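pinned: reference chain
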Amino acid sequence: MLGIWLTPAGKEQLSLLQPWPGLEIRQSDRQEPFNLREQIAQAWSKYDGLVFCMAVGAVVRLIAPYLQDKTTDPAVVVIDDRGKFAISLCGGHLGGGDRLVTEISARLDAQAIITTASAGLGLPGVDLLGAPFGWQRGEGDWTKVSAAVAKQLPVQVWQESGNRLWQSHLPDSHAFSFCNELLSSIDQVVEVAEVAEIEKSEKESKQATDRSIGKTETIDISANFNAIDQEEYQARIWISVRDWRSLSTNFTGSADRTTASLPIVQWHPRLLWLGIGCERGVSAELINLAVQQTLQKYGLTAQAIAGLASIELKADEVGLLTFAEQNQLSISFFSAAQLKAIAVPNPSTVVAQEVGTPSVAEAAALLAAQQASQLQIEPDILEETEPEEAEQQLNKPKLLVNKQIVRDPAYAGAVTVAIAQATLESIDRPGQLYLVGIGPGSLAQITPAAKQAIAKADAIIGYGLYIDLIKPLLRPGQMIETYAITKERQRADRAVDLAQWGLSVAVISSGDCGIYGMAGLVLEALQARDWDGNTPDVEVVPGITALQAAAARVGTPLMHDFCAISLSDLLTPIEVITKRLVAAAQADFVIALYNPRSQTRTKPMDMALDIFLQHRDRTNPVALVKSAFRPTEQVKLTSLGELKVEDIDMFTTVLVGNSRTRFYQNHLITPRSYY
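pinned: its structure tokens
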């Protein structure tokens, strides 16, 4: 990202963005405008984002000659010299400008100006919808479909594969209609296309020049398209490992393809794992031919490939490694023993004699898909399913294409391809965990670093009340998951699941996340999974603590030694809490009590008051601060002798002064010195 400034004030604003990964800041000479134009010409294709600190009109004139296409133009953001506004000028969706301006405004505490229509509706851009999950954008009329969404016209969504988390986090006002009536027809086509005959002998397969074990038949499903086209929908979104154009009246590849009258766009989740077997010395070109033929025959798209898999004996196969590198695909190698344990439809005794396993391609594809399906990202989907059926659905990849043996006269050798579909798409990037303290609850008390972490996150997890407090900071497309106040460990586990998958996740806590917050529980969850300390990356973002916020509302009660004690016995035995209360009271600490009293848990606060009265004077000052810095804030100054426990609840922080703390003009003062 390149930042360009004209004035010292502009330089100061851009400097406030540091440290920012990859940010380079340059000065532009006001006296040499051609020099600035030259800089932009060079930077336009080099950087993925340009941030200008100057007048919007000037930036528009400067970049106008270089604007080409929204699929290739970089993000352009404009900041005013005072840092009050940050404007997403162009490249808002595909260039990442809207997301960038949200992060910049959080860092500068500026107002983000985003004018894209989908953002105004609280919707993710159609052209960004699958980006967090690593989906690949397929062909389609993105402009017309985006326009239909912006106009809130009814849009048909066919999602045949990939996770559906995005569906459950749309605003109530969305105009999407989710359709499943076509999907049964698709499954029927695939099942018929995968009818297989058991291979008679390896010798016969080697003599074949271009044959496949699978048979295909024709099923007419065009009626499904045409019927739905006549309905009220104005556009369509297709989410599948298949190219929608392959769903023709001749599934085996006829040029007579189904056409739809509606504009359509395609997203392809990366769910396909290709098992590859080959003769020694086979070329990358033949492997490519075999893969392309198999994909085309079964209507699958290369954009949905997550990775390759084969037997360890092929770990040095030059053609296979070259094909993987050329297509930027990962490749997993398995031992013969691992592959032998996988049940496949077409085992071969000949293959077993040669390499120690009756299957390479089918077994490798299934095993790779199984390993990619370990996390259960959508547990709620199975809640309405019968237990036995749910168990069958969990982590059960399926073999989409039985092994296909391909030869070609132009190349030596033969290649075997099988394709399995995982239950969880490959995101193929390291996840990120932000453990965020949002302070006492007022947006004014949230640090810029916390705001930026929230803006960056694909998913935000927290207690429902805390999510409500930060709603103005949320952006369209984020997945928001709320949990009850007693579900802290579930929150931590969920956050780790999503981050291990590859999402960036913000786990929010009130106050500081490392003080009775979620940070410790998340790190414990990572430790339980043998976290390597690197992936996912973890960043702890501190916040203003409850005791700091409460103290600020009543004066200066924390000017000498103090301690914090939680009265919740859900995670700490009451005997331990008692021991600490006695020690703190005897040592004359200023004491902050967290989680003091709930509707069902009243005894710990009664016990604490009894202990304090045994070791402190009845006139010892006490402050009760409820919901500090929130609209419902309540503050009460009292003493140990006058304290009424009925005034205390879970939103109250109790501050008990030491023997030197005193009242003065509705404030508490704890002297800095005992002398």
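why pinned: Residues 462 and 482 are 5 Å apart (CA to CA). The chain has 22 helices and 31 strands.
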